[in-house]
Write a structure and sequence with these properties.
The structure holds two protein chains of two kinds. By secondary structure, chain A is of the alpha+beta class. In chain A, 36% of the residues lie in helices and 23% in strands. In chain A, helix 8 (311-325) packs across helix 11, helix 10 (374-381) packs across helix 13 (464-487) and helix 11 (404-425) packs antiparallel against helix 12. Classes of the chains: A alpha+beta, B mainly alpha. The interface between A and B is medium-sized, with 28 and 23 residues.
Chain lengths: 759, 87
């Protein structure tokens, strides 16, 4: 007898014969079903070889349904293929491996696509989709999605979450207990008493039956420990809801991405339940649980994978689903080489976005204008995809049907734009705001990486020409924006890939910039928005040569008093909290001035504050935790030619028996004498008197000067001296080594006292 | 991501480096003036990149000239103001 049931799709994974499907029913119950599902692999090559493969496959023990057909390869057009439908999906990987061993010369497609993605493509579902199932007994006969990943406010699934965390960071200390919490329950289980721990935890897992086990350091420490304890004591702990399946373990690894070393710890995944580790979830700090669920919805990756995967994998998954749905072949190994170019063509095309050198100094009443998601916007609007021939850089969409990249990105981009415009209209304290922001930042990461993946040689739908086309359109759009602004008598202060900073006498409110925004949209066809109007903004010079401007080091205050900083000490993760906080506090004092004219009133307050902080530092009144510097270990200890402070810290940690891998962060204090640093975690805190106060004074002074030097120039020198043009005409003393003279903030304070007649 | 050609900034630094011996032999005052010229070329790296000229140093020379001309125009303007006041 058939019955119908509705609820949220919770999890999908293969079992011995078919797929296991978990559903959170609208009745509040958790249901387990099974469903038959076949996964198809395609092979292309000479007819003779395909016939041999056919015979070989027929002879295998795994049941396979075979057929010959034609399918579309993105790079080669229609190709004749042999389709092998594997009826026991769990056997697919093993069968494919032996197939490749036996027939290595054939081209394979759709070979390494995970089952959840295949399932998502086949039925149009996704993690936590609302679905209606028709079931007979335990078997799913049909599944129908009731919503899409693109709904702004999906009905939230009633998830039961149980949190487990040790009482301290196991990387740096020795945890004594595990803190268990769910709903209103919160208690701690001592690690010493192993049997009571396992029994207590087991009882709660059975009674509360959580959908999610949310841990801290669960992947790297807690789960492996619990499993080890179970093994030792012979006690069973129902971590999996599906007890017929084993817990899935994956190894740790370190890799290099976007110029940074990244460390990913081990993984432990559950079956019928999710295990999420706050510390091993990509970008958990940025977007939390809401963001993880959104990542899973839009990428269609199972939640436990979505939490741990990089945005690049997310974008690939989305493309795979589009390809499966449009019957486009997904190459297993890509053999697509760059087409030959002349040297001149290469010079014209091998460029990134346009990055200008800003005019250094303080500027008043500046409009910050940004193209909204510029690169993805270009791909969607101008139909840029590996299989679509390019139309030239004249900002016209490529003719023909939309390619796989725009089809994949369009709904995601539209959802982001809808969220952004919703955020603009929502009240500041609206309860939907944080949720929307989490979703928007999850999307942001996906959209940022989609551009890199377009040019990535190993990406299945990557092609360097498409990547170059995007930057070419981007440059064209930015130049048109510049021309539009100049035609309307704006002065261009700075341009950076997808943003412009412009100034025009008398333009002070968002309404004053509307005509410009409309003109730019008209000329480029891309959406553009006003990031805000700055009361004032300071573009900073390079730290090495203060005549040379750098593109992405600035700070400013918007009309509403909010502060924006980029590239300065307060934004850097290796700045000691005391220094970062002092810099931000100075900024907040400056933000009290309602415009640049009033800076001279708050400037003495900022200087007084700096003196107070400087005194606190010299007197040893700053807590040691506030002086901790945190740096990332960029390579193995042996690979350092001259050991950096971080490397010296690692050496101390290793002597104390703590291993650190490249990509992990270490925290230390600068101390006097050798070795100059003191590792913070795992060692006893040092005597506060050993802290290298002079070093911190230098660091503080530098951070203060970054902010107050340009402000001081404006306050003391007046409007004339605000922008440091190349050859300051007046009062220029002979140039010293390394550029113009630098205003020392201590000497400024003397001048200032005389200006204001003392405090 | 993987670039085949050096960026304008890299080319600029190479060109500047190529004149290290020339700079060394100059008097200190001249060295500083030369540094200013290179700094002024540096203001236009984005445009130099966009031009993708086969001989980048020509573009850098033009950029130096451009900044010099701006300076001349500025000075001329000021001189005219001063002269008109004297009349």
């Amino acid at each position: 007898m058939k019955t119908t049931i509705t609820g949220w799709l919770f999890d999908i994974y293969p079992n011995e014969t078919n797929l296991t499907i978990w559903l959170i029913g609208e009745d509040g119950k958790r249901h387990r079903f099974v469903q038959d599902f076949a996964a198809t692999v395609y092979a292309a090559g000479p007819s003779k070889r395909l016939r041999e493969l056919w015979k070989w496959l027929k002879a295998q023990a795994v049941p396979v349904h075979l057929s010959r057909t034609e399918r579309k390869d993105v790079f080669q057009g229609m190709v004749a293929v042999l389709a092998a439908e594997v009826l026991q999906p769990v056997k697919l990987d093993e069968l494919f491996r032996s197939m490749v061993n036996a027939y290595p010369d054939l081209t394979y497609y759709d070979a390494d696509i995970s089952l959840p993605l295949r399932y998502a493509a086949a039925f149009g579902v996704f993690p936590l989709a609302q679905v209606r199932l028709e079931v007979r007994g335990e078997t799913v006969m049909s599944i129908t999605p009731l919503d899409t990943p693109w709904d702004l406010e999906p009905v939230p699934a009633p998830l039961r979450i149980l949190s487990l965390e040790p009482d301290c960071d196991p990387v740096h200390g020795e945890p004594k207990a595990i803190i268990v919490s769910y709903e209103r329950v919160r208690y701690s289980l001592p690690l010493e008493k192993r049997i009571p721990l396992l029994v207590g935890l087991g009882a709660d897992l059975r009674r509360y039956d959580p959908d999610v086990i949310l841990t801290s350091w669960g992947d790297t420490w807690l789960m492996p420990l619990l499993m080890e304890l179970c093994k030792e004591s012979g006690t069973a702990l129902p971590l999996n809801r599906d007890e017929s399946q084993a817990v899935v373990k994956r190894k740790e690894h370190t890799y290099f991405s976007y110029g940074q070393i990244v460390y990913r710890g081990r993984q432990v995944q559950l079956r019928g339940r999710w295990h999420l580790d706050r510390h091993n979830a990509m970008l958990w700090n940025d977007y939390g649980m809401e963001g993880v669920l959104e990542m899973a919805r839009v990428t269609r990756q199972p939640v436990q994978d979505a939490a741990r995967l990089s945005p690049g994998t997310g974008i690939s998954s989305m493309q795979f689903v589009t390809a499966l749905q449009k019957s486009i072949l997904i190459p297993w190994h890509k053999n697509q080489a760059e087409t030959p170019k002349t040297a001149l063509d290469l010079m014209r095309s091998d460029m990134g976005g346009m990055v200008y050198q800003p005019t250094v100094g303080l500027h008043r009443d500046v409009g910050g204008i940004d193209f909204v998601s510029m690169y993805p916007g270009i791909m969607v609007r101008f139909n840029i995809s590996p299989e679509v021939p390019r139309a030239g850089a004249d900002l016209e969409p490529a003719p023909g049907a939309p390619g796989i990249v725009p089809i994949t990105l369009a709904p995601l981009l539209n959802k982001r734009l809808a969220l952004k415009s919703a955020l603009l209209t929502l009240h500041r304290w609206d309860c939907r705001r944080p949720g929307y922001q989490a979703l928007a930042s999850a999307h942001k990461w996906l959209l940022v990486t989609c551009f890199g993946y377009l040019g990535y040689k190993n990406a299945r739908f990557g092609r360097i020409e498409a990547h170059e086309a995007v930057t070419a359109y981007g440059r064209e759009a930015l130049l048109r924006a510049k021309e539009a602004a100049e035609d309307l008598d704006y002065e261009i202060l700075h341009m950076y890939v997808d943003g412009l900073w412009v100034h025009k006498e008398g333009c002070k409110t968002p309404a004053d910039f509307e005509a410009l925004l409309a003109e730019i949209t008209e000329r480029t066809g891309l959406p553009i928005s006003l990031d805000g109007v700055y009361r004032w903004v300071v573009f900073l010079p390079s730290r090495v040569n203060d005549k040379v401007p750098v593109a992405n080091r600035y700070f400013g205050v918007f009309q509403d008093g909010s502060i924006k900083v980029r590239g300065i000490e307060a934004r850097r993760r290796d700045t000691a909290p005391f220094i970062a906080e002092t810099q931000m506090a100075i900024m907040e004092i400056l933000a009290k001035a309602e415009d640049a004219v009033h800076l001279k009133e708050v400037y003495p307050r900022a200087l007084a504050f700096v003196r107070k902080e400087m005194d606190a530092l010299s007197a040893g009144c700053v807590p040691l935790e506030k002086l901790l510097v945190s740096q990332k270990l960029s390579r193995e200890l042996g690979e350092y030619s001259s050991p950096s402070p971080a490397a010296r810290t690692v050496r101390q940690l290793e002597e104390a028996g703590k291993a650190v891998r490249p990509g992990q962060r270490v925290r230390f204090l600068y101390t006097r004498g050798r070795p100059g640093v003191r590792a913070w975690d795992a060692l006893e805190p040092p005597d506060p008197r050993s802290v290298d106060v002079r070093r911190y004074q230098t660091l503080l002074k530098r951070a203060v000067e970054t902010v107050l030097t340009p402000i001081g120039q404006s306050v003391i020198g007046g409007k004339e001296n605000e922008c440091l043009y190349l050859f300051p005409a007046k009062n220029a003393e002979p140039l010293g080594e390394g550029g113009t003279q630098r205003l020392d903030f201590l000497s400024i304070s003397k001048v200032n006292n005389s200006v204001n007649g003392g405090r | 991501m993987g670039r085949t050609l050096p960026s304008a900034t890299q080319v600029f630094l190479q060109e500047e480096q190529a004149f290290a011996r020339f700079r060394r032999a100059l008097r200190r005052a001249d060295q500083l003036a030369l540094d200013d010229l290179f700094v002024s070329a540096r203001q236009h790296l984005a445009a130099a990149q966009y031009a993708s000229h086969a001989l980048p140093f020509e573009v850098f020379l033009l950029a130096m000239l451009l900044e010099e001309h701006k300076e001349v125009m500025k000075l001329r303007e000021r001189t005219e103001v001063i002269l008109s006041r004297q009349k």
